[in-house]
Design a protein that fits this description.
The strands form five sheets. Strands 11, 14, 15, 16, 17, 18, 19 and 20 form an eight-stranded mixed β-sheet that branches. Strand 14 and strand 15 form a beta hairpin. The protein has about 450 residues and is an alpha+beta fold. Helix 6 crosses helix 8. The longest helix has 16 residues.
Length: about 450
């Protein structure tokens, strides 16, 4: 008799309440092992691959790709005894952090000790051609494998709405359309159902051209109704988390923003010299690395910008370390990964860390842990050709520095107007923690270090 287990969606960190199913790595009928990655989900912070808690045979996928699921909701059903060799007895649910295999406890990759309660998914009316495994699953959910089938309309709990069947030529139910994250985002933006497409790429991968081709008829159809000129995209994932965080920050911390225009010609000249320095070979030293180093040095003289306002405790928490957040635009939206203990790094180490951090973020591989616990942030708006802005604080932080584009501009030097490399800085800070004098001093120090990097030896 089958021993069915339901794997609930776990909280992968930071108290998340829901996640979107990006894609399944297994299909019904596949055999899975403990700690085998079986699904990729997108939380409010990052894309995460989940390892399986049980070994056995996949009976059913309880959520579709693209569906948002609450933490604790079962997402997959697994038969622990597909060969039918063990008595059909209920199997207690282990904690999500552990699974029993051959009498030993295996720790699952990526899980903490927090236990997660699960609720059984309302059973569906059996399909006419349902197999033995499906019937067994329905019987187990109803409380008895021999219980008579109850029509969906008579069930005590509302039956879930079944997804629309995939059109001919598309992916079968339970299978995952093969497409890269940027292609998935494009499909969402254009309203294209990836399950309806046959990929033209290697191995059936859906390409950008496939999505654009599928959307072309809808965008060029004559006499389209007024509603066709609008698109509605669900607010979820990174966009939802960013919106909530920005609203919380904007209406909790009293923001003050100050601006400074800086001649960074000496910094750019030093950057050029470092390109030929043996120690910096193989490392891309960007202007952002200089700004990060200047921020860390300036924070030593004004520790208030690196502090946190703790409303509940009625305290200001001063940090003796700098976990530097770098705001990065990615295909999934705005994320802010951290460079841990940035204040203890040399310029070369900072440059290497920033390069690795931004590459990981753009590939969508930043983990939730890498985006938690920041103390101060830089947003590099200059990469978009923007001079400056009024950045909003990350919740829990007291300052954020906007680093603008570096431009050739006329500048007065020794009474003469000459062309120089000039950029603008903007500092937003929490006026509960940082007074105007302290914020101004910090911004002036950052500007002075960018205008004359040799001052760093005096800090």
């Amino acid at each position: 008799m089958p021993q069915l287990k339901h794997f609930p969606l776990p909280d992968v960190g930071e108290g998340l309440t829901e996640a979107e199913i990006l894609g399944w790595k297994v299909s019904p009928g596949d055999t899975v092992a403990v700690n085998q990655v079986f699904v990729e989900i997108e939380t409010a912070k990052a894309a995460v691959e989940l390892p399986c808690a049980y070994a056995g045979k996949v009976v059913e996928l309880l959520a579709e790709a693209g569906q948002t699921v609450e933490v604790g909701t079962p997402i997959i059903s697994i038969d622990l005894d597909p060969e039918g060799t063990a008595p059909g007895e209920p199997v207690p649910d282990p904690a999500p952090a552990e699974a029993a295999t051959n009498g030993q406890t295996a720790t699952l990759v990526g899980y903490g000790p927090q236990a997660t309660s699960s609720k059984r998914r309302p059973r569906k009316a059996p399909a006419p051609a349902a197999g033995a495994a499906q019937q067994a699953l329905q019987g187990a959910m109803a409380g008895s494998a021999a219980a008579p089938a109850v029509p969906a309309q008579a069930a005590p709990t509302p039956a879930p709405v079944a997804p629309a069947p995939a059109p001919s030529g598309g992916s079968a139910r339970g299978s995952v359309p093969l497409a890269k994250p940027p292609v998935r985002k494009l499909a969402k933006d254009l309203g294209v159902d990836l399950r309806a497409l046959a990929g033209s790429g290697a191995g059936g991968v859906i390409t950008r051209q496939d999505v654009e081709t599928a959307s072309a008829p809808a965008t060029t159809a004559p006499a389209a109704p007024a509603g066709a000129r609008e698109r509605r995209v669900p607010i979820k994932g990174v966009r939802k988390a960013t919106a909530q965080a920005m609203v919380q920050s904007a209406f909790t911390a009293p923001h003050v923003t100050e601006f400074l225009t800086v001649d960074v010609t000496p910094m750019m000249e030093l950057r050029q010299r470092l390109k030929s320095h043996p120690e910096f070979q193989g490392v891309k030293v960007t202007p952002l690395a200089f700004a990060a180093k200047a921020l860390c040095l300036a924070a030593r003289r004004t520790p208030d910008v690196n502090a946190t306002w703790d409303e509940q405790a009625g305290e200001i928490v001063y940090k003796d370390y700098v976990h530097l957040g770098i705001a990065a635009a990615t295909p999934r939206g705005l994320v802010v990964p951290k460079v841990r203990d940035a204040d203890g790094m040399s310029l070369r180490e900072l440059a290497a860390a920033l390069e690795a951090l931004t590459t990981t973020a753009r590939e969508g591989k930043t983990t939730p842990a890498d985006m938690a616990g920041g103390t101060i942030t830089i947003t590099n708006v200059g990469v978009f050709g923007v001079d400056t802005g009024t950045p909003i604080l990350n919740p829990g932080e007291s300052a954020i520095l906007a680093f603008g584009a570096i431009r050739d501009m006329p500048w007065v030097v020794d009474g003469q107007v000459v062309p120089r490399k000039v950029c603008q800085l903007a500092l937003s800070f929490d006026h509960r923690v940082v007074d105007g004098q302290q914020g101004s001093q910090f911004l002036a120090d950052v500007g002075a270090l960018l205008a004359d990097p040799s001052l760093a030896i005096t800090y």
